[in-house]
Specification:
The chain is 32% helix and 23% strand. With 297 residues, it is of the alpha/beta class. The strands form three sheets. The chain has a nine-stranded mixed sheet. Bound molecules: uridine 5'-triphosphate.
């Protein structure tokens, strides 16, 4: 029987060096796109896919994430006294009562694989679970994780979300060796390599931050030696999982913004501002005027 997927791991313990000094005292996942932290988009995607256990792996800047998803009675009272019940209700509904938040501490940023393994105590040996890297912010008609879980219900096999990247970008990603699936489809993976040189990449299909993994990956992660960049890599354990259980590449429908990079973050902010229901048209006019100045101030 194929098991339902109820648990999602959010590794948020990276150093976020590309966004310093903004990330000196807070994780990059708390940076907002206009008025909502990046992590909240990923949490909403997970909840919309039926996840009930939100597992955060937090680092040295731990407090802001836990505080964001916890209730804040003082703020609630203050908002209600001012008659702002709408915002008070909105804040209370970020995580519904039916979902649980669980926190693990990654005391040192030893790599994504190490971060995922920190959540091993709450994952049963044969239990499938999701991993979401919140800095890959996804916009899609059907939430990307839901697309993946729907597929998983047919196959029961682990999968990673993939997209095509430019050949010169392969050295920034995990790259899969697989036939190219159509949108919303799967292809069995033959292999995977972390950040290969352009002439050594098996394809231009890059892994993006959404995974469904079998619980049996946890002992593989625990036994993992440091790989590329001296970090314990999730990619290396997935390569082993391909041999033991099989792993598929899933081509998702939607648009990804790489909010871990400044340009991706700017693109996401601009697209969100332009599409904003309250002030999108004003933003459009503002941008138009700015572009007319040379250079804009
Ligand atoms: P990144 O490599 O993109 O994040 O990790 P980073 O290292 O924080 O960023 P830069 O390159 O220094 O700017 C991908 C994801 O894995 C998490 C990060 O928080 C991010 O969500 N991660 C990475 C951990 O939780 N722990 C780690 O040790 C490494």
């Amino acid at each position: 029987m194929i098991r339902p997927i109820r648990k999602a791991i959010f590794p948020v313990a990276g150093l976020g060096t590309r966004f310093l000094p903004a990330t000196k005292a807070q994780p990059k996942e708390m940076l907002p796109i206009i008025d909502k932290p990046i992590i909240q988009f990923a949490v909403e995607e997970a909840l919309a896919a039926g996840i009930t256990h939100l597992i955060f792996v937090i680092g040295r800047t731990k407090r802001s994430i836990a505080d964001h998803f916890d209730s804040n009675p003082e703020l609630d009272t203050a908002l209600r006294q001012k008659g702002n019940h709408e915002m008070a209700d909105l804040l209370n509904s970020i995580v519904p009562d039916s979902a649980a938040c669980i926190y693990f501490r990654q005391s040192e940023a030893l790599g994504l694989g190490h971060a995922v393994a920190c959540a091993a105590p709450v994952i049963a040996p044969d239990e499938p679970f999701a991993v979401l890297l919140a800095d890959d912010l996804m916009r899609a008609r059907t939430p990307v994780l839901k697309q993946m879980i729907d597929c998983y219900q047919q196959t029961g096999r682990s999968m990673v979300a993939v997209e095509d990247v430019a050949p010169q970008a392969v050295s920034s990603y995990g790259i899969v060796d697989a036939d190219r699936p159509g949108i919303g489809q799967l292809a069995a993976m033959r292999g995977i390599v972390e950040k290969p040189a352009r002439d050594e990449a098996p394809s231009t299909q890059a892994v993006v931050g959404r995974y469904i993994l079998d619980g049996s990956i946890m002992p593989l992660l625990k036994a993992q030696a440091p790989g590329k960049g001296g970090e314990i890599q999730l990619t290396d354990a997935i390569r082993q999982l391909i041999q033991t259980h099989g792993v598929d590449a899933f081509r998702y429908e939607g648009q990804r913004y790489d909010c871990g990079s400044k340009l991706g973050f700017i693109a996401c902010t601009m697209a969100s501002a332009l599409a904003h229901p309250d002030f999108g048209s004003e933003v459009r006019e503002m941008m138009h005027n700015m572009l007319a100045q040379d250079p804009p101030h």
